[in-house]
Amino acid sequence: MVNTILTITLLVGVFASLFLIAVTVQRCRSEKKNYFIYALIAMLFYVFGNYLEASSDSTGGAFVGVKVMYVGGCLMSPFFLFFVLDYCEVKMPRLAVRLLILLIPALNLFMLWTTDDTGLIYKSFRYSGETPIHTLQVLEQGPAYYSVYGYSILCILVSCGILLHRMFKWGKHYRGPLVFLILSAAAPVLANAIFIVNTYLLPSHLSGVNFTPFALIVTNIFVYIGVLRYDLFDFTPRASTATLDMIRDGLIFLDSHMNYIASNNVARQLFPGLNGFAKGAPIRQLPQWPEALAHLDADRKYEDIRFALEGGDKRIFNAWVNAVETNKRTLSLVVLIQDITKNEALLKQLETAAYNDGLTEIYNHKHFMELATIQLERAKRAQHPCCIIMFDLDFFKKINDTYGHQAGDDVLRSVAQFVKRTVRIYDIFARYGGEEFVIFMSDAKRKDAVLLAERIRVGIEENACDYEGTEIRITTSLGVSATAGELSLDELLKKADEALYTAKNTGRNKVCVAP
Question: Which residues are catalytic, by number?
Answer without folding.
Answer: 435
